[in-house]
Amino acid sequence: MLKVSIIVPIYNVSQYIERCLLSIINQTYQNIEIVLVNDASPDDSILKAQKIIDQYVGLNVSIVTHDKNRGLSAARNTGVKASTGDYLFFLDSDDAIPENAVMLLIENVFQYHVDLVVGAIDIVGASSKKYPSLNLSEEKIYYKSEILNSFLKKEWYEMACNKLIKRDLFFQKDCWFQEGIVHEDNLWSFQVAQCSHSMVVCKQPTYFYHIQPQSITQKKTERNFDSLCIVISKILESTDFINNKKTQYLLCTYLWELKIFCLKSLLKSNLSKDYIRYIYERLRLLYSNKLFYDFKKSTVLKVKENLLKGLYKLYK
């Protein structure tokens, strides 16, 4: 029976940790290892977690503690190294999963013997927001270039959570999270799409994503934009290994849309004009990469880019 390790980074989530842990404890699939990574949380999150764990006999739980706060990527990497499962599942400590989540995902592994299973997401706490649906067929195995192409077309999401992934990929394919940045999920999911041999999707909800008003994804700071530039740079480093023309075009489109997102968010921010000019120039240099020499942008991309250029001129 395959073991699934659920990795939960913990940092300042005292009011949410009970909901998160109980959703794991109540899973219908039994062969689960819980790996909690205390990322030097300043509150009583880990004490609450320990109190909950002590109430249940027979849980397979390990707690790893960082001596200083190192961020989400480092916490996940630590959790992977401490895990012993055949497959891994990342769960953020302010979210939760339905009781049949692991069972639904692992059944796909039993049936199709794949590296990766991507589940559907339900959003809680923001009726105006809807997470992108999985625009892929169930009961179909996607292989190699199909996986990367479907990711670049945004047919499955960038969020690291709610993906059941073979643990060996981290050690054999170097699928570690980039530490010291935010937007690490974008880069990690791209890397996973590159190195996974096979994938299936599960369209039944296997994750409850709770929108928090003060989430780092809701307020853009200089760190967001510095991180996005690092993500773009790291993705561009892999372009020499992509020779397929269709994949190259999809990659160019994906990266151009990421650039537009970055510029749009930048111009909406309250950051200084000097910093906005700095990031604009940094992006200009990144997108002078040879990958884009023959890229023929769609009309929609051209219109969006020209509009943002016009708005940028108003800032100068």
Task: Summarize the structure in words.
This protein is an alpha/beta fold. The chain has two domains: 4-210, Spore Coat Polysaccharide Biosynthesis Protein SpsA, Chain A (Alpha-Beta Complex), CATH 3.90.550.10; 222-315, no CATH class. It has helices at residues 17-25, 45-54, 72-82, 101-112, 144-152, 168-172, 184-195, 222-236, 245-268, 273-286, 299-315, and strands at 4-10, 32-38, 61-65, 87-90, 116-124, 142-143, 163-166, 198-210. Helix 2 (45-54) links the parallel strand 2 and strand 3 (61-65). The relative contact order is 0.12. The mean pLDDT is 93.
What's the overall geometry? globular
Please write the CATH class name of the largest domain: Alpha Beta
| Number of structural domains | 2
What is the helix content?
A: 40-55%
Mean pLDDT: 93
Oligomer state of the chains in this structure: single chain
* CATH topology value of the largest domain: Spore Coat Polysaccharide Biosynthesis Protein SpsA, Chain A
Which consecutive residue ranges, at least 5 long each, have pLDDT under 50?
none
**Structural class category:** alpha/beta
Would you spell out the secondary-structure blueprint of this structure?
Elements: E1 4-10, H1 17-25, E2 32-38, H2 45-54, E3 61-65, H3 72-82, E4 87-90, H4 101-112, E5 116-124, E6 142-143, H5 144-152, E7 163-166, H6 168-172, H7 184-195, E8 198-210, H8 222-236, H9 245-268, H10 273-286, H11 299-315
Parallel strand pairs: 1-2, 1-4, 2-3, 5-8
Antiparallel strand pairs: 4-7, 5-7, 6-8
